[in-house]
Amino acid sequence: MVQLSRICFRKYGDFVDNLRVYVRGGGGGMGLPRLGGKGGDGGDVWVVATKNMTLKRIKDKYPEKRFVAGAGANSSVRALKGERGKDKEILAPVGITVTGDNGKIVGDLNTDGDRLMVVKGGAGGSFHSAFQPSKGQTKHIRLDLKLIADLGLVGFPNAGKSSLLTAMSNATPQIASYAFTTLRPQIGKLMYEDYKQISVADLPGLIEGAHVNKGMGHKFLKHVERTKQLLFVFDLVVLCLQVDVCGFQLASKTPFRSPFEAVQLLTKELELYKEELVSKPALLVVNKMDLPDAEDKLAELKQQLQNPDEFSHLLPDDMMPKSCMTFRHIVPVSATTGFGVDRLKRCIRESLDDDAATATNDIHQDRLQALRRQSHEHLR
Question: How far apart are CA 285 and CA 306, in angstroms?
Fold first, then answer.
């Protein structure tokens, strides 16, 4: 197994993950009635996915948040067909969902270079419009960022996600003994010696009730949707739920949760937000194995996860998920001492590689079946 050599991490300062902007297509140009000339069409407005772009950069560069395409040129004796207006491009981060003010999704931009027209320019004046041009479309749209990563570190506050990142890499996320030290996502790349790269997202901790927007709420959960490994991908998604071997308690007035309860509650929050998230392949990291009685507590957790129905009474019925998570690996680690970190790195790589191989095989099988159908139809 190729060992992980290093990770490059960057932190989003003043993180912005949604932005409302005004867009207007260019107006068409006037036609020329006496010569039958046609005015130029107005330009369109496009949102274009661009690497290394952030919504904060857009906000800073365009404080008025207005994007207007160029107007079409009028028809003239020298140019009976007026020149088309210039398109306006909004360079946005990869992972953007564009929605209208009505909440309806206009489209997604998931790959560098993806383009989406959001408003169309007006038509130039012509014989069919009595040579009068039309105005361009206008609307407000929302640019909503949902992070795309191979790996998403997910857990309750103070479970040790940031400490684990430090142990796995030379990353230096904020670490403290209080909850919510991660208040905005961080994105980086795990770099392997064979040049394999795994993108990593350290996401803010969830609390009970996140699905109804408590705590970081939807601001966190929307980023879970597109992370490939929760440690969450679209066609190869692995979820890494991270818990503390001693359990979890957000504050003195909130109930203490055992590791088993913490896993079920986190699963329930994901299920309530979007049920299909729970069906994704999963990997469980149990952190803080350097604490007293950790081995006994780990053994108890494994037994409970193997027979979740027998321990469902530990939580109220409305807090138990409909389907319990099945984990590919349960990896005990200590971010403090480094115990288990190398094994975790191997499991992450193996899990991703296995899913990639499965996806490739499925594509080959689909293509083979299509060729067989074509051959059969040809013979008929």
Answer: 16
- pLDDT tens for each residue of the chain, 380 residues long: 444 444 444 444 456 778 999 999 999 999 999 999 999 999 999 999 998 888 889 999 999 999 999 999 999 999 999 999 999 999 998 888 999 988 889 999 988 999 999 999 999 999 999 999 999 999 999 998 876 777 777 776 655 566 766 676 644 433 333 333 334 566 666 777 777 777 777 766 554 443 333 444 345 666 667 777 676 322 223 445 555 566 544 444 556 677 888 888 888 888 887 887 787 777 888 888 888 888 888 898 889 989 988 888 888 887 888 888 888 888 888 878 888 888 888 888 888 888 888 878 877 787 788 777 777 776 66
For the entire predicted model, the pTM comes to 0.63
CA distance 130 to 31: 8
Q: Are strands 186-192 and 197-202 parallel, antiparallel or unpaired?
A: antiparallel
Contacts of 39 (CB under 8 A, 6+ apart): 28, 29, 30, 31, 32, 72, 73, 74, 75, 82, 124, 125, 126, 131, 133
